[in-house]
Every structure is written in structure tokens, then in C-alpha cells.
């Protein structure tokens, strides 16, 4: 029986060696799926823009823009920002950077080859075989060992080893060669047993990759909202300049008319300072409006970052529809429900909760004693030459060793503290998620109220502007017939200016309130046809 086992052992070791090489390349990949959803594929770090009407998605590519004023629609501005914005370029790299930690964690299950070659000589004396004297001797040794080892997610460590040793001593006529093939298998029985605990770090790394994807999505959403809001602020600033210029023109006409009426004696000279003060006030307002427009232009150029030299000198013209968009709001509960699924910050919090669950798995396993089963099998050949030592591996000589290794620290305080900390951190993550959900709902409901308020303000400011126009016309006519004073005309003119600006401001506020509502519920990118990482919400049920 021992002879038969000795003959079969080399074949068994060779088969195990080939099986280890084949399985090591695929075991981890097949045995692991992404916790909390998502295929086992590289992180999606590409941001696309889908055309209106469901046209095919195309990857954004930088465009060459003609020189001169930059004429863009709001959609063009969003697209240009996604192409060129430098902050977004920086953020896009984060998922790819974080994903490298997955490869590092996967490396724990990669096979490793180890080779060691050594040689040496010993020259000394030893007691002579006659027993009464000493004799000189010289021994030359050479040894070579190669091994292949791998740790599997099941908690199994397998090592295959092949080695040979040569000893040539002056005390013997022939050199001595020994060649050995061996295999050692160590299986964790308690601590470190099973894929659940051994894949924790890899699964946490994959969750971290998804976290970075949602972080990128949230950044992109905020950036798109900022671009849209800045576009409307810029359009408002340009319109405000036009309104102030028109008002200044009217004020100057009023000043000239007042001078004529004073010249013919229909008005007292005391009426002139009031209209002159109004002209000066309008000129001051025009200076402020132009400065405000320039500041917004610089902010918009930074967001768009158009290609070409001297971008700060480029003029920008935002092309937009002058009509109010016809949008009917749904019930606020619908927006709250969408935010619960799509808001990136909530999905990040859920991933942190899942990460805490994995940490509990690992620390709970750490409470167990260390108990490993190990088996070592080997087959050796001995001869006076290297070739003969290999041929004689099939003979009866072999070695076998089996045993159990046990270790458990007194009190086990380190593992208990780590597990307690993981429990508290997990509870904290759950409480943080509950609190964050409530804050998000408040944000959505507040944004919803703001949309409704600004929409009502559009009609109210329009009515105010019409009455102020009539008020200015009446005061101007009364002044011409001597029944009013210049101060009242100037005041009416200023009221009309304020109401006209308030009217266009109300429209811009309404559009920006809509943008903020869509950002708060996490649907802004989807509504704008933008495909970005983090499209799939995280489900804790998985």
C-alpha cells in the first residue's frame, strides 16, 4: 500500500500544480460579485450628452470654436462645460484612482512564485573516524527551490514546492543529490474561514469605487446647475443694462424737457435739481449694472473654459427663449420620492452603511480563535547525480505531515474592541442616513415652495410694472401742464425702473428655482439628457 501511494504521489503533486495555476487566474473573478449592485466591470467615468428626442448617446469631444463673441444656448453652455471645465476634469479622475484599490485588494488572492538558489563551501576539521585524531574535510553544497503559493477566498492557502540539493564532501567519493516535490495545504477552520470574511476588503474597495462615482455625479449635478443659473444671471444682467439704458434715455429727455419748460417760464428753476439727480442716479445704476454683467461674464467663462487664447476677453451672448416655459409641477411627494432614490448624497450614505455591514462581518469573525488545519505531502528522490535523483522520486520514499494549529489570546480585547467599534459605527451610519433623508426632504420641499413662490411673483411683478408705467405717464403729463413737480416724476420713473428689473428678475428666479428643485431631487442630469456615473440607485435590500 505504501509503495502504491509512493508511486502515485508525484502524479498527484503535478496535477495539483497545474490545477492551481489554472484556477488561480479565474477563481476570484468568478467568485465575487459587487456588493450593493453593479457588474464586475471598470468604473464608468465617461460623461455623455444625449440629444433631445431620445437620439443615440455620443461621447463628448472638445470642439474648436470660431473666434469672436461666444454665442451659446443654455444647452450649448452645459455641453461646453462638460467638455472643458477644469474642475470637472479633475473630478473625473477620482473613480479611476479609487478603483486601483480594488486591484490592490484583489492582489491578496494572486498566485506568487518564489525561487531561491544558493551555494556554499565549508572547510574544517572533524574527529577522524578512527576516533584518535582529527581530519580535514571540505564540503560544497548547492540548493535550489522554486515554489508556487496562493491564498484563496475560502481561507485556504496552497503551496507547491520543488527543490533539489547537492552535497559534495571530501569525506565521500561521490556527491549526493536529493530532489523533492511537495505540497502544503492550510485551511482556516474558525478565524479566517469562508469567502464572506476574506472578501470583505475587496468588496469594500468596490463600494468605495461606487462612492466615488456618486460623488462625481453629485459634483456634475451641482456644476450643471451652476452653469444654468449663471447663464440666466448673465442674461438677466444684459437685460438689466438694456432697461437701465432705456430709463437713462428717458431721464435725459425729461431733463431736457424740464429745461425747456423752465426757459419758457412754465416751471420754476427749482424743479431742475430733481431731474438732474435722477439722471445721475440712472448713470450710477448703469455703471453698477455693467460691472455686475462683467463679473458674471468672467464667472461664466471660467465655467465654460472655451478653447483658444485670451478667453477672458471674449464676449458672451446667451441665446434663450423669451417665453416662460410651460411646466406643471407634480405633487411634492413625487419629488421627495425621486430624491430618495436618485440624490447622490443619500446613495453615498447607503453605501457607507453597506460598508459598515461588511466591517461587522470581518470583526465578528475576528472574535473567533485561530484554528488551522494543515497537511504537508512530499516525495523525494536520492542519488549520486541530479538526473537519477529525479528518476528515483517514484520510489518508496515520501514524507507526510498533518496537524492542527490553535491560538487564542487571553481576554481577546483587541478583537472585541474592534467589533464593538464596528457596531457603533454601523449604528452611527444608520442614524446619519435617517437624518440625511430628513434633511434632503426638507431641501426638496423648500425648493418646491420656492418654485411656486417665484412663479406667482412673475404675474405680480408684471402687474406692478404696468401700473408704474401708467403712473409715470400720468405724472409726466401733469408736469407738462404744471400740475405736478419734477420730484414726483423722477420718483415714478425710478419706481418703473425697479419694477421692470423686478419683472425680469422674477422670471430668472423662477427658472433658477426649477433648476434647484431638480438638483435637490437628483433628477437634473436625467432631465438634461446627461449620462454620468451613479445612474443606478443603491438598494439596501440587496
Arrangement of strands in the largest sheet: 4-5-6-7-9-10
Distance between the termini: 53 Å
CATH class of the largest domain: Mainly Alpha
Unreliable stretches (pLDDT < 50, length at least 5) are 1-7, 21-60
Order of helices and strands: HHEEEHHEEEEHHHEHHEHEHHHE
What would you call the shape? elongated
Cα radius of gyration in angstroms: 41 Å
Which structural class fits the helix and strand makeup? alpha+beta
* CATH architecture descriptor name of the largest domain: Up-down Bundle
CATH 4th-level superfamily of the largest domain: Outer membrane efflux proteins (OEP)
Strand content: 15-25%
What does this structure look like?
The protein has two domains: 2-31 and 111-151 and 156-191 and 370-407, no CATH class; 48-104 and 201-356 and 420-531, Outer membrane efflux proteins (OEP) (Up-down Bundle), CATH 1.20.1600.10. The protein has 13 helices and eleven strands. The chain has helices at residues 2-24, 27-31, 74-84, 86-106, 195-198, 200-263, 272-304, 332-342, 344-366, 386-391, 413-480, 486-520, 524-527; strands spanning 48-50, 57-59, 70-73, 112-127, 134-151, 156-169, 176-188, 316-319, 370-383, 398-407, 530-531. The strands form three sheets. A six-stranded antiparallel β-sheet has the order 4-5-6-7-9-10. It has a three-stranded antiparallel β-sheet with strand order 2-1-11. A hairpin with a 6-residue loop joins β6 and β7. α4 (86-106) runs antiparallel to α6 (200-263). The model is unreliable at 1-7 and 21-60 (pLDDT under 50).
